[in-house]
Design goal:
622 residues, six-stranded antiparallel beta sheet, 9 helices, 11 strands, five-stranded antiparallel beta sheet
Length: 622
């Protein structure tokens, strides 16, 4: 919401007026509140003093009569009932009596009956009077018959007799007088005994009720004459207390706070109404006055609006009709329009130049961007080629390293094979020697077998001859008859032994023949093995020579692979550096292209701004 100048002028004035009226009202309310509190306190204290005076006078009237009787009572006890009756009727007692030092009880007429064995010396009122030695007021108590609230006034006898004079009084007259005291507002007057129990209360059922059963002790006034606030029976009350020093009783006065402050509330509403009326009157007066004073400003605003919403005619001027602040504003406005007219003319010229420069800059930016895009395309291809070459070089270097490693492994394997071939050749040499030695042994075995064959032939010839001799011996034994029987048996055994020897010789001969054949085969195999061993030695020598040649070739290949790998690594480093340089050039080219695009966009924006500025300046008629 936009406020007008008149509203902005009126609002602070009315706000200040409102603040002043509120401050005045608060101050008046505070002063009025103080006055009301003082008046309330004065009224409450006056009521309490009136009640205090009434109670003191009431007790003094009763007590003076009793004290005078205690002072001047005749020593003749026979006359005491008459005197007691007279005092009872004159002072308004319900009963007067004397408790003697001998335990007798003398009462006014008619005397109520006493309990059997009643001894006044054992009663609290008797002991209290004796203890104090002066007029004493007992705590209120409920009488037996009738059951009404009573108090007793006691005084020791002053006539030389030993005893206590006492009188019982109903509290009804006292409480009725207290509760009938008139006050300005709705109130309650309570009388509290020294023990803290109620003596007088608007509700008679609260007699002897502890006051803290009705009002919390912490809400009672702490000091005499102090007024505090209490919420009781659904209403707010002013509360004050006063103590009666002679009896220790307390007066408690509760005043309806709403009634006590109703005059203040009415006066506050009256002040509020007066303030509101003043506010309305001042607002109307200020509205008319400000409207009259701002008429020149309205005319000035109207003219400025015509200039602003028209065709931008800067040739218009305001008429200066007065020499006050508004006239100075009109004069300053005319000077401003004149300077603005000159400025607009210069801006129009600068706008034309700016538009031409913007178009030229946009065209140059477009050409630069085209060249930079072409250069960036070439650099991208160069960067891609360098990257591919770097990757290929890396693969070549890796393969060269793998080739060198493979050549080294082949050389190592060749050396191991060469060692194995050398060991094999040495083993074959040893085997050939052992085969040769075994061939000699087998030849010796063959010779021994031949020797055994000759021996067997000899044994076989001996066996045949032995057989012939045995046969001859058998023939001779047969001829000898009985005498040659033993010789015949021996000849038969010799013949049998010769036969078995012949058979064994045949078997041995067969075995030796078989052994000879095996020996011949072994000799033949040994010779063949020896020949093959010599051939293997020659092949091993040839294989060792070939392996040495392979080892030399592998060493040469490894050296060349290492050189190739080193050269490729150098080429890879150069390729990487070239690729990095190309990437940097491409990055710079991209930045240059971005700058060229930004330059073209700024040139375009500048051209648009120049066009818009020209359109704006064309709206003014300078």
């Amino acid at each position: 919401m936009t406020l007008s100048f008149r509203q902005r002028l009126l609002i602070p004035i009315l706000a200040l007026l409102l603040v002043g009226l509120i401050s005045l009202g608060l101050s008046a309310n505070r002063m009025l509140n103080n006055e009301v509190q003082q008046a309330t306190q004065s009224e409450i204290n006056s009521t309490l003093r009136t009640a205090h005076t009434f109670i003191d006078g009431w007790l003094k009237a009763k007590g003076d009569v009793l004290a005078a009787l205690a002072q001047h009572l005749d020593r003749d006890e026979q006359r005491w009932p008459e005197a007691l009756t007279l005092v009872r009727d004159a002072a308004g007692y319900d009963l007067t009596y004397v408790g003697t030092g001998t335990g007798e009880m003398i009462q006014s007429r008619p005397a109520p009956p006493l309990p059997e064995g009643y001894d006044p010396r054992k009663r609290p009122w008797y002991a209290a009077a004796k203890r104090s030695g002066q007029l004493t007021v007992t705590e209120p108590y409920m009488g037996a018959s009738p059951a009404v609230p009573l108090i007793s006034l006691t005084s020791p006898l002053k006539n030389g007799s030993d005893g206590v004079l006492a009188g019982d009084i109903q509290l009804a007259s006292l409480t009725q007088e207290l509760l009938s005291l008139e006050t300005r507002w709705n109130s309650q007057l309570w009388l509290i005994g020294a023990s803290g129990k109620l003596i007088a209360h608007p509700n008679e059922d609260h007699f002897q009720t502890p006051v803290d059963a009705l009002i919390p002790t912490d809400q009672l006034p702490k000091a005499q004459g102090e007024i505090s606030t209490l919420h009781y029976q659904g209403r707010d009350w002013f509360i004050a207390t006063e103590t009666l020093p002679d009896t220790g009783w307390r007066l408690l006065l509760l005043v309806d706070k709403k009634e006590a402050t109703v005059a203040q509330s009415e006066l506050v509403w009256q002040l509020g109404g007066i303030g509101l009326a003043i506010m309305v009157v001042v607002a109307v007066v200020m509205l008319v006055l400000v409207g009259y004073l701002t008429q020149p400003l309205k005319r000035l605003a109207s003219l400025m609006n015509d200039i602003a919403t028209g065709d931008g005619d800067l040739t218009q001027r305001l008429t200066v009709e007065r020499n006050d602040e508004l006239g100075q504003v009109s004069l300053a406005f005319n000077q401003f329009i004149e300077r603005l007219q000159t400025t607009i003319r210069e801006v129009i010229q600068l706008t034309l130049r700016l538009n031409d420069d913007a178009q030229t800059s946009a065209e140059q930016s477009r050409l630069t961007l085209t060249k930079v895009d072409h250069q960036q395309h070439e650099l991208s291809q160069l960067s891609a080629a360098a990257e591919q070459m770097s990757v290929a070089t890396s693969e070549i270097a890796s393969n060269a390293e793998l080739t060198a490693d493979a050549a080294q492994n082949a050389a190592d394997s060749t050396r191991v094979g060469l060692n194995v071939v050398e060991e094999n050749r040495a083993g074959i040499d040893r085997l050939a020697q052992q085969v040769n030695q075994a061939g000699g042994v087998i030849g010796e075995v063959e010779e021994q077998v031949n020797s055994i064959t000759g021996i067997l032939a000899t044994i076989q010839g001996v066996a045949e001859q032995t057989n012939l001799l045995a046969l001859n011996a058998a023939i001779e034994a047969a001829r000898a008859g009985e005498h040659g029987r033993g010789f015949a048996v021996v000849a038969e055994e010799v013949r049998s032994l010769s036969s078995r020897t012949h058979e064994s010789t045949e078997e041995i001969h067969a075995m030796i023949e078989a052994l000879k054949q095996v020996t011949q085969q072994a000799v033949s195999g040994m010779k063949s093995s020896e020949s093959m061993a010599h051939e293997s030695v020659e092949k091993a020598v040839q294989a060792a020579d070939r392996l040495r040649q392979i080892d030399e070739s592998n060493t040469h290949i490894r050296d060349m692979a290492v050189q190739i790998a080193s050269a490729v690594e150098e080429q890879n480093a150069v390729s990487s550096e070239m690729s990095g340089n190309t990437e940097q050039i491409r990055t710079v080219s991209e930045a240059l292209a971005t700058q060229a695009r930004d330059g073209r966009e700024r040139a375009t924006e500048l051209s648009e701004v120049a066009t818009a500025l020209k359109e704006l300046t064309d709206r003014f008629r300078a």
